Amino acid sequence: MDNKYWDSVATERVALCDDGKYRWRYDVNLFKDLDIYWLIWKVMFFSLAAIFAIGIISDIVRWGFDSVTNLKNYRVFLYITLGMTVISALSYFIYAAIMGKYYCIVFEMDEHGVNHRQTDVQAKKSKKIAAATTLAGAASGSLSTMSAGLGASRTEMYTEFSKVKKVKPYRRKKLIKVNEILNHNRVYAQPEDFEFVYNFIVSHCENLK
After folding, report:
1. Per-residue burial over 124-145, b = 16 or more CB atoms within 10 Å of its CB, e = otherwise
2. For the chain, which terminus, N or C, has the lower number of CB atoms within 10 Å?
3. Residues 6+ apart with CB under 8 A from 7
């Protein structure tokens, strides 16, 4: 059975399916929950910060440590960061409008791990938007825009419980952060199922710190 089938049968409540996996659907309101925006912003910010750091190191090599005190460099970085924040906010709300204001996820979970997957219809839209963003970044020479586009192209994330180091519940947000060393997954569940999902994840993560 393909993703379209599971998209059609998944509901907001957690259900055990015939293949032995728990599935449920969760729709994140992109206008109310800005966590996804901040994730995008962080990707762009750290891309800019990396470029800035390389520039500072290059200046130190050429001109010595006195170049570090040049406030002009920091002002330029500040202005670029402010501009990036405005542009990324506008882009985010345009994206939210195109998606119909919701980020629609189907979760699949068994004793081995949990998969966070954007619904098939939205995934196709997201990949087209990501491709356009990446091309725009390449054409303009903007590494931060390219990074945002490449990040947005990912519509699915699987977390293997044996590799999980930390599980953090945020009950008010209906969110469980399931973190490996490098990959950080986000699992949402309705209040009625939140404790079940949280306890299931914790009970199957053997290497929690």
Report:
1. ebbeebbeebbeebeeeebebb
2. C
3. 25, 106, 119, 120, 121
**DSSP secondary structure string, 57-95?**
HHHHHHH-GGGGG-HHHHHHHHHHHHHHHHHHHHHHHHH
Which two structure tokens, joined as six digits, stand for 104? 């629609």
Q: What is the pLDDT of residue 89?
A: 87
SS3 98: helix
Phi and psi of 107, rounded to 5°? -100, 140
List alpha helices for 99-156, DSSP H: 120-140, 143-152
CA angle 98, 13, 102 (to 5 degrees): 10
Q: What is the pLDDT of residue 127?
A: 65
Low-confidence ranges of the chain (pLDDT < 70): 1-2, 63-73, 126-154
Calpha distance 197→24 (Å, rounded)? 11
Q: Read off the pTM.
A: 0.73
